[in-house]
């Protein structure tokens, strides 16, 4: 529920901060005092369109901060968590309206968009009257309210899940069936490509080895010439390198007996002579096995040419050809199984459709029964609220299966006739704001226990009524306040007297500036305010007694 609201420099409000209580709260005050500014401020905090003209004269910006306790609003907590805007079970909304520039909004200290504010507002506050945030005017909200009233919200949720499961399977099946011709053409192409790539018969490692073999064979003459020349230098030339190394080592061996410092170079020369001999032997073995084979080179180059041709054709590197084969084999296997999958998918789709239809038909029957009860309850409330002969009806339009959706097999609409002889028409088309507010009040009272929005605001629901009907409106609002938080802007003492608490809105002039103030009334001040509403500016002992009597009736 709404716990507090702060307003700065909005219209004629300079600075105002108010703590809000549960139950029914009446906002009263003389005409023009600014009672509706609180409603406007709350609407702005929850995403209403901002206008720089609303900023107090002489100020550069207006600010509204609204705090909400979400302990009993799991839907709002879940929404905030999904938007990454949650904060320890509470919610603080801040809206800044600047004279030069765009307004800014924050939820729990994090920037938020106007759409996010409106979505959050739909979960937290319903403003009834000629204002926004009236969820009862939306078709989906009417359907959800009927389901909650009938106690079959769980069944409605199951129907929505069943429809989504059916629709997902149906879309998969449609995609497969529409692609059947394309699939046949793709199968032919894949079979040809797999056969072509399989004929290659090489792995990525073998492709790399083939490339090395081609380079070796193409440089065979150079390899042979250079290896022979080095072998000659090592062992066959006069003098050979190995012979020179042995001779040098022998010379140092004689001198090492004189100077031990020559032992290490002597040993290194002897080792070098050994390595030179081993290198010569290895080269001789290499040359013995090195044969010029033009046919082998031609075969390798032909193989490599095939690799590069295929690589260009498939637009991959030669070494990636085995991966291309694997990918096409997997796709080929999937497509070859498609017909079998089509049959299985079609059966699953039909099963899901039947499950949805069974649940949706049960939901339709439950809705019809709940609608009859709601029709009677709200129609009776309308008679009490000054709309004698008025009627309320829930219209349930059956939909064919092909037009079904997550809401089931029906389209739900709330219809009303505010006066005798007038036809029923959609709630959204009711012309009078006062009538709409009172009809909404009747619906909210009838469904108070199942509503999910914690705070209801009724802006001058008493327009055009008085006397006994006004007292009935007050009683209904108080009854509604037992289950939800209710804020009510009213001019009628019969309504205000029923409130659990009362706020007085006053307009003051100070140093040539106009200010709006709101104060919470204690019992004595409340008697005075009710007396003012009864008797105007002149309060007499009789009006005070009458005010005390009205407050006593409310309990």
UniProtKB/TrEMBL annotation:
Task of the protein: May be involved in recombinational repair of damaged DNA.
GO term, biological process aspect, one: DNA recombination
Name used for this protein in its record: DNA repair protein RecN
Phosphoprotein as UniProt keyword: no
Example GO molecular function: ATP binding
Keywords per UniProt: ATP-binding, DNA damage, DNA repair, Nucleotide-binding
Organism name: Thiocapsa rosea
Record NCBIfam families: PRK10869.1, recN
Location of the RecF/RecN/SMC N-terminal domain: 14-508
InterPro entries associated with the record: DNA_recomb/repair_RecN, P-loop_NTPase, RecF/RecN/SMC_N
Domain of life: Bacteria
Family statement drawn from the similarity comment of this UniProt entry: Belongs to the RecN family.
GO cellular component entries: bacterial nucleoid
């Amino acid at each position: 529920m709404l716990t507090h609201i702060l307003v700065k420099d909005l219209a004629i409000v300079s600075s105002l901060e108010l703590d809000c209580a549960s139950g029914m709260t009446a906002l009263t005050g003389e005409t023009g005092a600014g009672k509706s500014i609180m409603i406007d401020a709350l609407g702005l905090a929850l995403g209403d369109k901002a206008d720089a003209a609303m900023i107090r004269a002489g100020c550069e910006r207006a600010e509204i901060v609204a705090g909400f306790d979400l302990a009993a609003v799991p839907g709002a907590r879940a929404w905030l968590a999904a938007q990454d805007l949650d904060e320890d079970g509470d919610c603080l909304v801040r809206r800044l309206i600047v004279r030069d520039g765009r307004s800014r909004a924050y939820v729990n200290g994090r920037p938020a968009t106007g759409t996010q504010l409106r979505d959050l507002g739909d979960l937290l506050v319903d403003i009834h009257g000629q204002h926004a945030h009236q969820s009862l005017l939306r078709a989906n909200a009417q359907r959800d309210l009927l389901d909650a009233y009938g106690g079959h919200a769980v069944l409605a949720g199951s129907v929505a899940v069943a429809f989504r499961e059916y629709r997902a399977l149906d879309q998969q099946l449609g995609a497969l069936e529409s692609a059947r011709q394309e699939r046949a053409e793709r199968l032919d192409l894949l079979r040809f490509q797999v056969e072509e790539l399989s004929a290659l018969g090489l792995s990525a490692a073998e492709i790399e080895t083939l490339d090395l073999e081609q380079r070796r064979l193409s440089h065979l003459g150079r390899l042979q010439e250079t290896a022979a020349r080095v072998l000659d230098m090592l062992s066959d030339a006069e003098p050979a390198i190995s012979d020179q190394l042995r001779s040098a080592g022998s010379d140092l061996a004689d001198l090492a007996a004189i100077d031990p410092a020559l032992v290490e170079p002597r040993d290194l020369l002897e080792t070098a002579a050994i390595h030179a001999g081993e290198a010569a032997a290895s080269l001789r073995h290499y040359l013995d096995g090195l044969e010029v084979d033009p046919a082998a080179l031609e075969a390798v180059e032909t193989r490599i040419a095939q690799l590069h041709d295929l690589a260009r054709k498939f637009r991959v590197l030669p070494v990636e050809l085995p991966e291309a084969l694997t990918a096409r084999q997997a796709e080929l296997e999937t497509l070859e199984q498609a017909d079998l999958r089509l049959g299985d998918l079609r059966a699953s789709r039909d099963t899901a459709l039947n499950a949805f239809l069974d649940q949706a038909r049960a939901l339709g029957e439950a809705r019809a029964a709940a609608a009859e009860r709601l029709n009677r309850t709200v129609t009776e409330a309308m008679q009490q609220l000054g709309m004698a002969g008025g009627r309320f009806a829930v219209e349930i339009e059956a939909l064919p299966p092909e037009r079904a959706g997550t809401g089931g097999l029906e389209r739900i609409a709330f219809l009303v006739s505010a006066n005798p002889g007038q036809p029923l028409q959609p709630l959204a088309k009711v012309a009078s704001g006062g009538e709409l507010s009172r009809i909404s009040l009747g619906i909210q009272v009838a469904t108070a226990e199942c509503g999910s929005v914690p705070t209801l605001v009724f802006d001058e629901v008493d327009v055009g009524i008085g006397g006994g009907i006004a007292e009935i409106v007050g009683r209904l609002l108080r009854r509604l306040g037992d289950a939800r938080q209710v804020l009510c802007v009213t001019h009628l003492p019969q309504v205000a007297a029923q409130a659990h608490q009362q706020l007085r809105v006053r307009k003051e002039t100070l140093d040539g500036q106009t200010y709006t103030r709101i104060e919470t009334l204690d019992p004595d001040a409340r008697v005075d305010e009710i007396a003012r509403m009864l008797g105007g500016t002149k309060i007499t002992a009789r009006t005070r007694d009458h005010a005390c009597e009205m407050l006593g009736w409310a309990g």
